[in-house]
Structures are given as structure tokens and as C-alpha cells.
Amino acid sequence: MIPVQFDYLAPTSVEEALAALAEHGDDAKVIAGGQSLLPVLRMRLNAPEVVIDLGGIAELRGIREDGDSLVIGAMTTHHDVLNDALVKEHALLLVRAEHQLADAQIRHRGTFGGALAHADPAGDLGAPALALGAEFVIAGPGGSRTVAADDFFVDLFETAIAEGELLTGIRVPKHTGWGAHYEKFVRVAHQWPIVAVAAAVKVDGGTISEARVGLTNMGSTPIRARAVEEALVGQPATEDAVRTAAALATEGTNPPSDLNGAADYRSHLAQVLTRRAVLAAAGA
Amino acid sequence: MARIELTVDGAKVSDDVEPRMLLVQYLREKLGKTGTVIGCDTSNCGACTVHLDGRSVKSCNVLAVQANGREVTTIEGLADGDQLHPVQEAFRECHGLQCGFCTPGMIMQAVDLLGENPSPTEAEVREGMEGNLCRCTGYHNIVKSVLHAAGGAK
Ligand SMILES: Cc1cc2nc3c(=O)[nH]c(=O)nc-3n(C[C@H](O)[C@H](O)[C@H](O)COP(=O)(O)OP(=O)(O)OC[C@H]3O[C@@H](n4cnc5c(N)ncnc54)[C@H](O)[C@@H]3O)c2cc1C
Ligand code: FES
Ligand code: FES
Description:
The complex is a heterodimer. Chain A is of the alpha+beta class.
């Protein structure tokens, strides 16, 4: 229940936080909303000597427009992303996913950047970020770099963020006017999905002209269902056409087997949930 | 030790705490505010729900140092003297509890929910309260209580 002792630092700028990380190396852990880290520390699965709190860094919070993209500060809470007018207009898929993430209390504390940095394969934001082609802005001792979503998720709980670096923001290309849906399959309320599917589609006159599909918990990282995307383009937004494309959802996946479901069950779910997600996104 | 200063239920408090101390521990063990309870080890049950700067959080999943400089409201700060908060009143009126263990968290979450959405549908209440577990009531009367509070004296 109680974490082991640690020292606590509360920097007020990214620069200060990076300096603290440089000084303490792998003895340190940053805390964002703490909604994933604190349970880990309380179960004593990790015991950093220093905890660096990003909560006091104002520049990491907020959502702004930058040309064809939105930039979401890493420390923006789930609640603020869920209720943001810009996100609703230009990246509806994120609203759909945030709506189903955890519960109200967790969404008030947990952050958009923290969830993506945590990289839980069952986390609800990886697949939508991947589907929308998000870019990750990472600051380090040598300055800032940008990593494409395809390169950000490396493995279970592992991202392109290196030791001594911080995720500062997520750049999400605008998908204005796209339909979106996040279809999440859970066994109990407010929990991580067994499998979930993030879909965004552009429909012109009843025909799907563009499609983005991301899968949650079908491998050690979120997976982009490119075969489904390609099969959808040019098709009518009908049950039959979408069903045929959705059958390709297992291509390139490597689903885990665990207490919540065996791999073949997850593969079945991926196809069913992809059909539902795409149809809902298309408004069909 | 870290120095913290915050407002709890309207009163200014300051203390030296270990950085690892959880907010719920601080409230219960240092301030004696045992109205806020601990029901689980996994941040699932919501029994420990309090408001941090006006929004509901699970106080077992927040460090006391993270509340430094901020305002905390617990179930003990809800009533106005002898005058119960309308949501407390509604839970009494509608039998929204049996053993009562989940109730402080239920009420704090219901107050947050009604602050954001003053006239929720039944479905919105069930969804807005999904982070709070009850082992006794089957939720029905809890939902009724929240809807009753939303509808005022109806
Ligand atoms: C009861 C419960 C239910 C939940 N249900 C769901 C769910 O259904 N779906 C879901 O997706 N999630 C769920 N979560 C997790 C939630 O989304 C967390 O908010 C999120 O995973 C972590 O965000 P955080 O801001 O709390 O990060 P923290 O817990 O503070 O940090 C998580 C990890 O990321 C690192 N980190 C954080 N920010 C940065 C940064 N800017 N740069 C570099 N590293 C960083 C930390 O060092 C840590 O290792 C749940 C959590 C709980 C307690
Ligand atoms: S005690 Fe905090 S959620 Fe259960
Ligand atoms: S009344 Fe007993 S747990 Fe809810």
C-alpha cells in the first residue's frame, strides 16, 4: 500500500526537470498524473530514489492549434482532452477514446502524455494516436526531437523516450470532418480493454474515401491495421463491404493469451470490433 | 521530509510529511479526517474520493505533496454546520446506502458529477459513477439518490 521512501523534486520548467533527470539518471522517475506510476510504487514493483513531479510545469499543459495540427501538452489531463472544443472538431477519435478511458476521478488526474509514455499495450490512447499519425515531441539534454507514431511505440511499456528525456507534447494532424469511433471490449466497467479498435473514416457521398484503423492489445504495442484501411478505401459504407475489410484486421498482429482471453479469441474480437468501429465511425 | 501547505475543508493546514505519504493517509492519520475511507489497494473502488481544487480524485492515488498549495474538500467539509449537503440529504432520503462504507466516495463523486452536469439522465449517472464500487446496494438506490439530488425537492 505504501511506496518505499524517495526524495521529491517539483521543477517548474522543462529545463529544470531535464537538469534533475540528468543529475539523478536512472535513480529517478518522473511522475505526471501518477495514475499508473503510484499503483506501481505502492505495489513496490518499482522503487526510484527520486521522484520528479511534472505537475508544476505550466508550459506542459494545454491544447493549441498549429497550422494543420493540434499540439497537446503532455501534462494535459484526460478530462481536459475529453472536453476540448478543438479536439472535438479536429481529432474526434481522441474524444471517443478518452470517453471510455478509466473513470472520472482517474481522468481528472491522469494525463494524455503520461498514458502514452507509459505505453501499456492495453492503454486506450496508443491506437488512436497511431491511427491519426500523431508525432511525439521529446525534449532531452541536446534539445528537442520529433518521433513519428510508427517509431514511438517500441515494446511492452517501452517507447522511443530515452533515459534523460521527457515527452513534452503530442502533435496530432487535423482530421476535420472525419467520423470516428472507439470500440472497446471490457469484462468489467472502467477497465483496460481485452481488445479495442480505433477507427476514423472520411465518407464522401456514401463512399469511404480515407480510413485509419488502430488496434489496442493485439500485440506488445498498438498496431495500425493497414490492410483494413486499404481495403476500405473506395468501398461503400455498408455492413457487407465493411465486414469484408474488417476480416483483414488480424494481419500483422500477435495477440497475447492471458486470463482475459486466448489469442484466437482476441483475433475474433479484432475482426468483430473493427467492423463495429468502422460502421459507427462512418455513421452507418 | 517535505513541507506542505494546503487548505482542507476550508481550514489552512501545514505539515512536514514524507514524500511517499498518500493524500488519504495524510487526511486520516495526520488530520484525523477518517470520514474518507480506504476500500482497496488498486485505486478501483473510489471509497477514498475527495475533491482536489474542486474536482474528484482518488486520494489513495495522489501523494500528499502533490496537494501542496491546493484545496482539498472531503466528505467532512460538505455539510454547512448541521445543514447536510443536498446530496447527503438525498442519500438519506432514498436509502442510498446499506453498510455505508462506499458512501463518502459515492457522495463526493456525485457532487462532482452534478457540478458538471446538473440534470443527468440515469445512464449518465451510472456512467459518471463507474469509478465507485458498492458491495451492498446493487447501485439502484445510489442512482436514485443522485437523480433525486439533481431534481431538488421533487
Ligand atoms: C483504476 C484505474 C483504471 C484505469 N483505466 C484505464 C483505462 O481504461 N485505459 C487506459 O488507457 N488507462 C487506464 N488507466 C491508466 C490511466 O490512463 C493513467 O492516467 C495513464 O496510464 C498514466 O498517466 P499519468 O499521467 O497518470 O502518468 P504517471 O502514472 O504519472 O506516469 C506513467 C509512466 O509514464 C512516465 N511518464 C509520464 N509522463 C511522462 C513524460 N512527460 N515524459 C516521460 N515519461 C513520462 C512515468 O515516469 C511513468 O513511468 C487506469 C488507471 C487506474 C488507476
Ligand atoms: S481506496 Fe482509493 S480507490 Fe479504493
Ligand atoms: S453500502 Fe455497503 S459498500 Fe456500498
